[in-house]
């Protein structure tokens, strides 16, 4: 199986091959695939010259704990024709992607997994979760709390695209786990709502000085469905939630993508008026260069930790001393005895602070060599906020 790079003139063939792998057909007028970076896309090709597999990467920025923004490749459009599966095509494409990312200076790779059992063997671990929150509007009386300052106006999606882009960009730079949305995605409507041109109403929040600092995009069709809520802080989140829950002509409000630490249920007089459902993994993280990745993010406490990291897919095993002082980490190879032994996929899961190392130790994923090591790792890897990713790609 040969892996070949693509060019712009391959776009239509690439899309046709990808959809054939999933047994589907592209929708007329779908702009999602206009954002593909064809210089980062691949074909798997048989000796006879038939294109039987695809894989691509988007050039994103990922926010790490401490509001550190770094480049990260977003793996997408991965598919192999049913007639050619289990012949090494996917493995070969993943190896090519990892090598290319490292050559570009990227030390992190991320993806959204269509199936949870596929990507661990390539070193990816689930690092963020999201869930749906369904609120019975007639039972959603708020507890007595202060009304946040500011104002909300209702706009149509087509009227305020530039404002949405601006507000989202400020938000994603402060939220661990958030990905950038490149300007050409917004310009082309290449994505799901609210990036797409699909009709939506926008509740745009402005602060006391009139500056936009949050929004929620929604559609009312019996149920009021909220695509996403973007807010500068908890006060703005509260103001937008109250606005949506006060909307007439609906009995239910569904918030589609909520972070684990969303405060809404605790703000209701009736805690059970809000129901959590469809909790799922979202962003998967893969460390391509362990020392660079551990040096890049900020750390909430001082400490020394020796990690023995196994990377079976790359055929590598490394032992690293992580030394944290004043929020900054240094990571070097060491021959000291390890505190923790773990797979690189599990390191990806704990990297953003969304999963405690002790949880993975209890699950049998991480081996703890010293009694206090798990507690220290929990303290070091903790993030200032639960990581959350809204972006679909």
TrEMBL record:
Quote the Pfam families the UniProt record gives: Acetyltransf_17 (PF17668), Acetyltransf_9 (PF13527), SCP2_2 (PF13530)
Q: Which domain of life is it from?
A: Bacteria
Keywords carried by this UniProt record: Acyltransferase, Transferase
Positions annotated as active site in the UniProt record: 119 (proton donor), 393 (proton acceptor)
All copies of domain N-acetyltransferase, residue ranges: 1-145
Gene3D superfamilies xref list: 3.40.630.30, SCP2 sterol-binding domain
> At which positions is acetyl-CoA bound?
78-80, 86-91, 114-115
A GO molecular function annotation here is:
aminoglycoside N-acetyltransferase activity
Under the heading InterPro entries, the entry gives: Acetyltransf_17 (IPR041380), Acetyltransferase_Eis (IPR051554), Acyl_CoA_acyltransferase (IPR016181), Eis_dom (IPR025559), GNAT_dom (IPR000182), NAcTrfase_Eis (IPR022902), SCP2_sterol-bd_dom_sf (IPR036527)
Record keyword Isomerase present: no
| Subunit structure as annotated in this protein's UniProt entry | Homohexamer; trimer of dimers.
Q: What protein name is recorded for this chain?
A: Predicted acetyltransferase
Q: Which species does the entry assign this protein to?
A: Amycolatopsis pretoriensis
List the lineage, top down: Bacteria, Bacillati, Actinomycetota, Actinomycetes, Pseudonocardiales
């Amino acid at each position: 199986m040969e892996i070949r790079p693509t060019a712009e003139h391959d776009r239509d063939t690439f899309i046709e091959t990808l959809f054939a792998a999933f047994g589907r057909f592209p929708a007329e007028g779908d702009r999602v695939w206009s954002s593909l970076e064809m210089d980062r896309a691949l074909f798997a090709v048989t000796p006879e010259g038939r294109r039987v597999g695809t894989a691509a990467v988007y050039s994103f920025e990922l926010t790490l704990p401490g509001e550190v923004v770094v480049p990260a490749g977003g793996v997408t459009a991965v598919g192999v024709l049913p007639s050619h599966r289990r012949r090494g095509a996917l493995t070969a494409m993943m190896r090519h992607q990892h090598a290319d990312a490292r050559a570009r200076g990227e030390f992190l790779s991320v993806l959204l997994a269509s199936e949870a059992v596929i990507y661990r063997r390539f070193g990816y671990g689930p690092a963020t979760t999201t869930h749906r929150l369904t609120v019975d509007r007639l039972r959603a009386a708020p507890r007595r709390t202060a009304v946040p300052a500011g104002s909300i106006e209702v706009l149509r999606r087509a009227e305020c695209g530039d404002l949405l882009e601006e507000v989202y960009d400020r938000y994603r730079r402060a939220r661990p786990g958030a990905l950038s949305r490149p300007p050409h995605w917004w310009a082309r409507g290449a994505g799901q709502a609210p990036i797409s041109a699909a009709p939506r109403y926008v509740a745009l929040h402005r602060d006391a000085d009139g500056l936009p600092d949050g929004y929620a995009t929604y559609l009312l069709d019996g149920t009021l469905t909220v695509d996403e809520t973007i807010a500068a802080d908890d006060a703005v989140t509260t103001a937008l939630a109250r606005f949506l829950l006060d909307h007439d002509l609906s009995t239910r409000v569904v918030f589609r993508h909520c972070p684990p630490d969303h405060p809404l249920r605790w703000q209701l007089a009736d805690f059970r008026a809000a129901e959590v459902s469809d909790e799922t993994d979202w962003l998967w993280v893969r460390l391509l260069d362990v020392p660079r990745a551990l040096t890049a993010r900020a750390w909430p406490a001082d400490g020394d930790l020796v990690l023995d990291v196994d990377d079976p897919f790359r055929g590598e095993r490394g032992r690293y001393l992580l030394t944290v002082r004043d929020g900054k980490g240094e990571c070097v190879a060491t021959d000291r005895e390890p505190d923790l032994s773990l797979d690189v996929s599990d390191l990806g899961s704990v990297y953003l602070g969304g999963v405690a190392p002790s949880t993975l130790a209890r699950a049998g994923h991480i081996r703890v060599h010293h009694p206090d090591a798990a507690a220290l790792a929990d303290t070091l890897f903790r993030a200032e906020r639960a990581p959350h990713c809204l972006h679909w790609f």
